[in-house]
Design goal:
The protein has 567 residues and is α/β, with parallel strands linked by helices. It folds into 3 domains: 122 residues, Rossmann fold; 164 residues, Alpha-Beta Plaits; 237 residues, EAL domain (TIM Barrel). Helices cover 43% and strands 20% of the residues. The strands form 3 sheets. An 8-stranded mixed barrel has the order 11-12-14-15-16-17-18-19. The protein has a 5-stranded parallel sheet with strand order 2-1-3-4-5, with helices on both faces. The chain has a 5-stranded mixed sheet with strand order 7-8-6-9-10, with helices on both faces. Helix 1 packs across helix 5, helix 3 packs parallel to helix 4 and helix 13 runs parallel beside helix 15. The longest helix is centred in the C-terminal third of the chain and has 21 residues. The protein is globular, with a radius of gyration of 26 Å. The two termini are 49 Å apart.
Length: 567
């Protein structure tokens, strides 16, 4: 029996024209998701319904007359209370690239095809809701602050209260940094405001800090201490990065004057962890600052000791990761892709591993997010690409039958303006045929900036490179829009394979993806295959290839050659 995708407390606002065939077809599927559905038939009633119901997500039928769907999306997105609400646009097969682009510019978050298989409807909506609240979804600072940040003369309590109020009901944080001098330095004290303004105003120092939606306020408390309030912070540890940025800036200024040390002690408290109101949060930040001053000049301390430990372990790991490529600590492991009928190896996926000299093998689940947040994923990704291409060419030169080498592209890499140049130069250096390189991109990556996505994919395809969509089914792309992407394969995410023989929803989703691939003439690969029963089920569905521990885990290159066949 199909399980609801949502709890009854989840509210969906569905806006569709009265009598729309799309609405009739989708109504039952939406009801089956288990959410509380509010329906509206036109823009005016939709706005009122949004105001009264405050839905968790909105679904707008693009078949509303005279472009009103896009207008409604734009109007909703302009409302402060709808700033972070997922807005999905429901479309038919007739929607084209211009329609998608216009909806994106109006603020649409995702797209849903009217003919989407019923088993996928709830999953698509749930994923859209989860992604909207994902604190890691936005990882770069927004508008560069090229001008020095002025001292905010507003009331400190009101600044903190307002920042906390904007984060209520979200996964975002407010950070308060209280700055104290760790030693007696009249020269530093006289120029401290100038130093802080300069550090905060330098975008290059702040580009890795994740206050993507909020503001940064520099002010003073009643005792004359400088206080920085960061609103709508996506990651707590970025407050520590900001603190270290300030200390490093001041330390550089002192060094230029023949002095050593930063002289700054910084205490940090975050909401809601250390306080859900302005008074409690400010008190916690001042307490943290006193602890930092006790530790001596240049110290930085969170109010919560467990947070303190977690943050600095994370930052230490991040600093180690910056040196991992240089120190030759990274390794590339390879996992075979196998033809489902012949069980012959037809490809490999290159997967990076980190052999830390003290911590041992660090899980990719730990360091890949760090690499993406810090920007290290770009040099790491370039290194993995080079190693994988070189190894693939070495196997060809050794007389093994040529197989395709798959390399994952991160969202950061995919948006690099020199991506094609990096890849083509790598292929030239390693002398690997472009057709033997497969680039895997995730479904969610493709739906960000559609025009750029299609342009990038077409240029890669023109270079002769094989393209596939990884983790398919977990994202939120429009199924029909896949026809506009020059891709060659879909990879069914392992989450649908794990219980494919017991869970009817997973079986239905896998079946839908395989049928979709067949209709679009795409190869379909199932990830995470671990049992013979899973293999048998996928063979019945006519899946093309499998990948998983049933055949082999990711292994070093030396262990791969046993799977390869001589040409």
């Amino acid at each position: 029996m199909t399980q609801p995708a949502f709890q009854a407390t989840t509210t969906l606002l569905f806006v569709s024209a009265y009598g729309s065939e799309v609405a009739k077809q989708l109504a039952q599927a939406l009801t089956d998701t288990g959410c509380s559905m509010v329906q509206a038939e036109e823009a005016r009633t939709a706005l009122e319904a949004f105001r009264t119901s405050r839905p968790d997500l909105v679904l707008i039928d693009m078949q509303l007359p005279e472009g009103k769907a896009v207008d409604l999306c734009r109007t909703l997105r302009a409302r402060p209370e709808a700033k972070h609400t997922p807005i999905l646009m429901l479309h038919g097969a007739g929607a084209d690239a211009a329609d998608f682009a216009e909806a994106c510019l109006a603020g649409a978050t995702e797209f849903l095809e009217a003919s989407c298989p019923q088993a996928l409807v709830g999953h698509r909506l749930r994923t859209a809701l989860e992604l909207s609240s994902d604190p890691l979804r936005e990882t770069t600072a927004s508008t560069p602050r090229k001008q020095p940040l002025a001292l905010d003369s507003g009331n400190l309590q009101e600044l903190v209260f307002s920042a906390i109020d904007r984060t209520r009901g979200t996964d975002l944080h407010v950070a308060v940094l209280v700055i104290m001098l760790g030693d007696s330095d009249s020269a530093l004290e006289a120029r401290l405001e100038e130093h802080l303004q300069a550090a905060l105003g330098d975008y290059q120092d702040l580009e890795r800090i994740s206050f993507t939606r909020g503001r940064v306020h520099l002010t003073r408390d009643d005792d004359g201490q400088y206080v920085i309030v960061v609103g709508e912070l996506t990651r707590i540890h970025d407050a520590a990065k900001l603190g270290r940025t300030l200390q490093e800036h001041v330390s550089a200024q002192r060094s230029g004057s023949g002095l050593s040390g930063s002289g700054l002690c910084i205490g940090i408290a975050t909401s809601p962890e250390d306080g859900k109101d302005a008074t409690a949060l400010l008190s916690a930040a001042h307490e943290a600052a006193r602890h930092a001053r006790e530790d001596g000049p240049g110290s930085l301390h969170f109010r919560n000791s467990s947070t303190n430990q977690w943050v600095f372990e994370r930052l230490t790991l991040e600093r180690s990761l910056e040196r991992a490529v240089e120190n030759e600590e990274l390794r590339v492991f390879y996992q075979p892709k196998v033809d489902i009928n012949t069980r012959r190896v037809v490809g490999m996926e290159a997967l990076v591993r980190w052999q830390h000299p003290e911590l041992g093998m660090v899980s990719p689940a730990q360091f890949i997010p760090l690499a993406e947040e810090s920007g290290q994923i770009v040099p790491i990704g370039a290194w993995v690409l080079e190693e994988a291409c070189r190894q693939c060419k070495a196997w060809v030169d050794a007389g093994y039958e040529p197989i395709r080498m798959a390399v994952n592209l991160s969202p950061v890499q995919f948006r690099q303006p020199d991506l094609l140049q990096v890849i083509t130069q790598t292929l030239q250096r390693t002398q690997l045929e472009p057709s033997l390189l497969e680039l895997e991109v995730t479904e969610s990556m493709l739906m960000q900036d559609l025009h750029q996505t299609i342009d990038t994919l077409r240029r890669l395809k023109a270079a002769g490179i094989y393209l596939s969509i990884d983790d398919f089914g977990t994202g939120y792309s429009s199924l029909s829009y896949l026809k506009g992407f020059p891709i060659d394969a879909l990879k069914i995410d392992r989450s649908f394979v794990r219980d494919i023989t017991q869970n009817s929803d997973d079986a239905a989703i896998a079946t839908s993806i395989i049928l979709l691939g067949q209709n679009l003439n795409l190869k379909v690969i199932a990830e995470g295959v671990e049992t013979e029963s899973q293999l048998s089920f996928l063979r019945i569905l006519q899946c093309d290839q499998i990948q998983g521990y049933l055949f082999s885990p990711p292994v070093p290159a030396a262990e791969v050659e046993g799977f390869l066949e001589r040409a």
